[in-house]
Amino acid sequence: MGILVTFRHMKASEALKQHCINQIRKLRQHVRRLSKVEAILSPAKKGMAMVEMLVSAGRARIQGQNTSEDMYTSINQTVYKVGTQLHKRQSKLRGKRHAHARTKKE
User: Fold this and answer.
1) Which of 44, 80, 41, 45 minimizes the C-alpha distance to 62?
2) Do 49 and 68 meet the contact criterion of CB atoms below 8 Å apart?
3) pTM, whole model, 2 decimals?
4) What secondary structure letter does DSSP report for 30?
5) Contacts of 60 by beta carbon, 8 Å cutoff, 6+ apart
6) 53 with 26: CB under 8 angstroms?
7) How many Å apart are CA 75 and CA 101, to the nearest integer?
């Protein structure tokens, strides 16, 4: 899994980068095949922090974005949003597989 953390219009901080990577690694519990995760960290208007995440998992491309006053909070909330989307996608796929198996048996 490739993880790319980009800082836009701000100085790169090793602590922020490590926190972002550790949070992104938690997404593996939802999907086994995460091929690429790109996180873009940038300051927004009036002291706000914005995080945008682009996740490639198999054929799916999932995007999440969040803005808050603290960069760490933005990272956590964005990872939560992306994780929710991945979980929802996986449960839909599992439902389709199980429904297909049930129709074959009958």
Assistant:
1) 80
2) yes
3) 0.85
4) T
5) 89
6) no
7) 39
Q: Which of 65, 83, 70, 73 is nearest to 26 (CA)?
A: 83
Residues linked to residue 39 through DSSP beta bridges, in sequence order: 5, 53
- Cβ atoms 49, 25 nearer than 8 A: no
Mean pLDDT of the chain: 88
Q: pLDDT digit string (tens) for 67-82?
A: 999 999 999 999 999 9
- Check if the beta carbon of residue 77 is closer than 8 Å to that of residue 64: no
Residue of 17, 78, 2, 4 whose CA lies nearest to 44: 78
Q: Tokens representing 86?
A: 């991945």
**Would you give the distance in Å from CA 57 to the centre of its chain?**
10
- Cβ atoms 79, 24 nearer than 8 A: yes
Sign, CA dihedral 93-95-99-102, equals positive
Are the CB atoms for 59 and 26 separated by under 8 Å? Answer: no
Shortest CA distance to 79 belongs to which of 102, 69, 42, 71? 71
- Which H or E run includes 41? strand 34-43
